[in-house]
Design a protein that fits this description.
The structure holds two protein chains of two kinds.
Chain A (H helix, E strand, L loop, with lengths): L1 E4 L1 H18 L6 E6 L3 H15 L5 E5 L28 E9 L3 H11 L6 E10 L11 E6 L6 E5 L4 E5 L1
Parallel strand pairs in A: 2-3, 2-4, 4-5, 5-6
Antiparallel strand pairs in A: 1-8, 7-8
Helix pairs in contact in A: 1-2
Chain B lengths: L15 H17 L14 E6 L5 H12 L3 E6 L11 H9 L5 E6 L4 H8 L4 E7 L5 H15 L7 E5 L6 H12 L3 E5 L9 H5 L2 E3 L2 H7 L2 E4 L15 H8 L3 H7 L4 E3 L12 H4 L6 H18 L10
Parallel strand pairs in B: 1-2, 1-3, 3-4, 5-6, 5-8, 6-7, 8-9
Classes of the chains: A alpha/beta, B alpha/beta.
């Protein structure tokens, strides 16, 4: 087990992502943030909390579960989590937020799911950890906390209780 | 994560965990039904036949909508107008349909045990019971439970649920009793002695009350059942008018009881018999919410029983 981000580093990275999102997404009123269930929510909650301290106006923030859009449904049934998108995404810039980008299959399913809520102006991806190798779809992050090179036997995990990001081999 | 069964034949076969899993999945499907596009691709490659050997409005439409909102392909079969009238047996009919590559069967039948018979002969096909004779109507019990939880919040533990009317011939009653008992609710049945099975208290662990007013005073939720005249082959009460006087849920009796009781009915309603119009249309009634929730609950059942995970040959 190897620590990729210590609690302090994780806090700094989340801080940086929040600042970067605010800096680059001009017209934050036209931007909506959507955390991906289940593991992206911890990251998105933290990012949104910081954005709210930096920006006085309304922030549109929702949660999306992609269980019903998975492409591995023939082999396994997964437990569905809550989806909560109580605003219109039509013509908005959607920022999808997840913890780890690896194969890209979750993001692919999320893009499918988003279509059922309307036609966004643009969709961007923000991840805490980008695993460079092992992508199975042409999907890349727009905002990224940390990029790592890892192999398929390794696992990246964000530990909520200790506030660390670790790499299991 | 999957259910402990490959079919949904009755609540009797489900574990508490299965029921919770179905209800929590239904909550997520209910959210899907509020979206601008009320459809998900989960069953895109699945074909489902709705075999209805008995009349139905709500259940048939509800299943068909649930299937369509899961992107499944559906075929509807009604016994009247089919080769059943030429003498084709149930198993032959189903085998012929399945040979055209149908993956799941939703069936309603007037014979108790008909879906169990199919499941025994067709173990590789998911069979969903949409009501069999006087035995079970599992999806109705699931949607009733979902509606009670949605209305009252929390769980069913220690909730006092009253079933009123034709307990003897009601499959809704039996499925509800199994489910509510498994989930920790207290159940009472009320109705004329001729419509309540004699040993129900010992067999199913429910309370029995022959006085409607006392029963209503006890309960938090009253589920009013229809008199199943089509299943009664002897006279069990003197007239519908008299039944209404003794066991009809009226505004008057509710006013006398003076308690906030949630009123449910699985439909079809015989207004003026088991329940009066002003009760059906009152603020205490969640009858139309039950119908709305039926689609989400049936989506959950179909999704969790979809072929692929359980069966090797896809």
């Amino acid at each position: 087990m190897q620590t990729l981000l210590s609690p302090q580093q994780l806090q700094l990275t989340i801080n940086r992502l929040a600042h970067q999102l605010l800096e680059e997404e001009r017209g934050i009123e036209e931007t909506v943030f959507i955390g991906l269930q289940p593991r992206g929510i911890f990251i998105s909650d933290n990012i949104i909390e910081i954005i709210k301290t930096l920006h006085a106006g309304d922030i549109f923030y929702g949660k999306l579960d992609i269980t019903f859009y998975r492409d591995d449904i023939r082999s396994e049934i997964h437990r569905a989590n809550q989806t909560d998108i109580s605003f219109n995404i039509e013509n908005k810039t959607v920022i999808l937020i997840d913890d780890v980008l690896y194969t890209g299959r979750t993001v692919r399913a999320a893009l499918d799911a988003l279509q059922d809520f309307g036609r966004p102006k643009a969709v961007k991806l923000c991840v805490l950890v980008n695993r460079r190798f092992g992508r199975e779809f042409p999907i890349q992050p727009d905002y990224c906390g940390l990029t790592i090179d890892s192999n398929e036997n390794q696992k990246v995990k964000v530990m909520k209780d200790t506030m660390e990001v670790v790499l299991y081999s | 994560m999957q259910l402990s069964t490959n079919h949904l034949l009755g609540i009797k076969d489900l574990s508490e965990k299965d029921i919770s899993f179905i209800l929590s999945t239904a909550t997520q499907f209910k959210e899907v039904l509020q979206r601008p596009v009320k459809k998900v691709p989960s069953l895109r490659d699945v074909t489902i036949v709705n075999l209805f050997y008995e009349n139905s409005t709500r259940t048939r439409i509800s299943f068909e909508l649930a299937e369509k909102r899961l992107s499944a392909d559906t075929i509807n079969f009604a016994a009247s107008g089919s080769s059943v009238s030429k003498g084709e047996t149930l198993l032959d009919t189903v085998n012929n349909i399945l040979s055209m590559k149908v993956d799941m069967v939703v069936m309603r039948h007037s014979a108790s045990g008909a879906p169990h018979f199919l499941a025994k002969h067709l173990p590789g096909t998911a069979i969903i019971n949409a009501g069999d004779g006087i035995n079970e109507h599992p999806t109705q019990a699931l949607l009733d439970a979902f509606s009670i939880i949605e209305k009252t919040g929390g769980s069913l533990v220690s909730k006092k649920i009253l079933l009123i009317g034709d307990i003897m011939h009601s499959r809704v009653a039996l499925s509800n009793i199994y489910l509510l008992k498994k989930m920790g609710a207290e159940v009472m049945v009320a109705g004329p002695p001729t419509l309540i099975p004699k040993y129900i208290k010992e067999a199913l662990g429910v309370r029995v009350e022959y006085n409607l007013k006392k029963a209503l005073q006890w309960c938090d939720v009253a589920n009013v059942l229809r008199i199943q005249l089509e299943r009664q082959n002897q006279v069990l009460f003197s007239s519908l008018r008299e039944y209404n006087l003794a066991y009809g849920v009226t505004k008057k009796i509710l006013a006398e009881v003076n308690k906030d009781i949630i009123i449910m009915h699985p439909g079809p309603i015989n207004r003026g018999v088991e329940i009066d119009s002003d009760v059906v249309d009152s603020g205490h009634s969640i009858i139309l919410q039950q119908v709305e929730n039926g689609v989400a609950v049936r989506m959950a059942v179909l999704y969790l029983l979809r072929p692929g995970s359980q069966f090797a040959s896809v």
